[in-house]
Amino acid sequence: MNLLDREPAALLLEDGTIYRGRAYGARGDTAGEVVFNTSMTGYQEILTDPSYRAQIVTMTYPHMGNYGINLEDVESGRVQVAGFIVREPCAVPSNWRSTGDLESYLAEAGVVGLCGIDTRALVRRIRQVGAMRGAILTGEAATEAALAERLAAEPPMTGRDLVGEVTCSVPYAWHEPVTPLPAALPTAGVAQPDRPYRVVAYDFGIKHNILRLLTTHGCEVTVVPATTSAEDVMAMDPDGIFLSNGPGDPAAVHYAIDSVRALIGQRPMFGICLGHQIAALALGAQTFKLPFGHRGGNQPVKDLRTGQVAITSQNHGFAVSPDGLGGGAVVSHVNLNDDTVAGLSLTEKQLFSVQYHPEASPGPHDADALFADFTRLMAEHRA
Predict the structure, then answer these.
(1) Which residue in 14, 75, 219, 273 is the catalytic one?
(2) Do the beta carbons of residue 186 and residue 360 sit within 8 Å?
(3) Higher pLDDT, 176 or 119
(4) Is 30 exposed, middle or buried (0-12, 13-18, 19+ CB in 10 A)?
(5) Averaged over 45-52, what is the pLDDT?
(6) What pLDDT score was predicted for residue 182?
């Protein structure tokens, strides 16, 4: 469909800036925090990542939908984003795995989007002013007054607990490993233990590929709701505890912080993104909102212990301040773009966490070895 044949649509940011373009995906209205992602591919993983709950995602790469949609590349049971903004949609995807097109996928999920705007200008605005709430309306209803009314109803991200909207309601077991890959890739040929490591994974908005990689590395995974108490976790007698990624303000997830504080030192613990932030808060640190966050597949992170630099996939709008960090924990990694904390280590308590996505969906495989580090800690704890 030609862009000019589409019905009009518009985005209003809370600073009053308006971008007028064309409707994309479902028709209607939506609102959320407007953010951007610099990945060139991986839009299906981004759309289904629970960490994007209540966010309108703008893709900086100008052409989206080229390789369509498939049934394998989802990271949760549904599309999670509040909205999706692209410069130019591809109406005719081409890929041997494709089972549909991106716009139909969005429409079926009820996700309102916007296309045909200058996404470079929008991203520049976000970088200058910071991540802001925004509202999208499609059709002739997209007047400035209607947009402002819809925007006013959307709460800010700071102080917002979104974990309850994405966590599972009851525990469940996960058995699916990573789809076999060529031997040259790091997930191939992983040695299996004599008996699986029993891992309890807190679901703060967990991605499927995290679960696949835990399973591939010899873990028998039980996923539990975010509200699960420390006592209930220990009653499962796990070899290790995993803290997942997730959306919203980590400081608002008080119940998880309390549980993690009680569990530190009980079993080896590994946290990713929101899980990393919750572990830091449990150790006495603070978190703060970044101006426009880190979202993309090319973020450089330095391991302060080895000097090695990894290119990582990241998706977060909050970061850890080391002020108040206690219990012997130290900063182990930093983001080289802005020197923010990208990892913590508490050797005596067998705890480590990172502010990036080693499961690499989408993104590089540089940090895959962190899953092996987790299993090594569990093996030492068994011994």
Answers:
(1) 273
(2) no
(3) 119
(4) buried
(5) 97
(6) 53
pLDDT the model gives residue 28: 97
In this prediction, residue 188 has a pLDDT band, given cuts at 50, 70 and 90, of low
Residue 324 structure tokens: 């108040």
**CA 155 centroid distance within chain:** 20
Q: Which pLDDT band, with edges at 50, 70 and 90, does 1 fall under?
A: low
**Residue 359 a catalytic site member:** yes
Based on the residue annotation, tell me whether 154 is a catalytic residue of this protein: no
| 140: containing domain | 3-152
Looking at the structure, do residues 323 and 198 belong to the same domain, yes or no? yes
pLDDT of residue 83: 98
The strand pair at 219-225 and 172-174 is best described as: antiparallel
Please state, in angstroms and rounded to a whole number, the distance separating the CA atoms of residues 95 and 8.
Answer: 30
- Are 177 and 142 members of one domain? no
| Residue 73, domain CATH | 3.50.30.20
Structure confidence by residue, pLDDT tens digits, 93-137: 999 999 999 999 999 999 999 999 999 999 999 999 999 999 999
Is residue 208 classed as helix, strand or coil in its secondary structure? Answer: helix
- Does residue 229 lie within any of the structural domains? yes
**Angle in degrees, CA 298, 72, 217, rounded to 5:** 70
Whether the model pTM is above 0.85:
yes
- φ, ψ of residue 32 to 5 degrees: the values are 170, -175
Q: Domain check: are 137 and 259 in the same one? A: no
Q: Is the pLDDT of residue 367 over 80?
A: no
- Is 208 known to be catalytic? no
Note whether 142 and 173 are same-domain residues.
no
What burial letters (b/e) apply to 236-259, b meaning 16+ CB within 10 Å?
Answer: eebbbbbbbbbbbbbbbbeebbeb
Pair (126, 178) in one structural domain: no
pLDDT 10s digits, 248-275: 999 999 999 999 999 999 999 999 999 9
Task: Calculate the dihedral angle through the C-alpha atoms of 120, 33, 340, 269, rounding to the nearest 10 degrees.
Answer: -130
**β-sheet bridge partners, residue 173:** 222
Q: Which residues contact 16 (CB under 8 A, 6 or more apart)?
A: none
**Active-site entry in 33, 45, 154, 359:** 359
What's the pLDDT at 368?
82
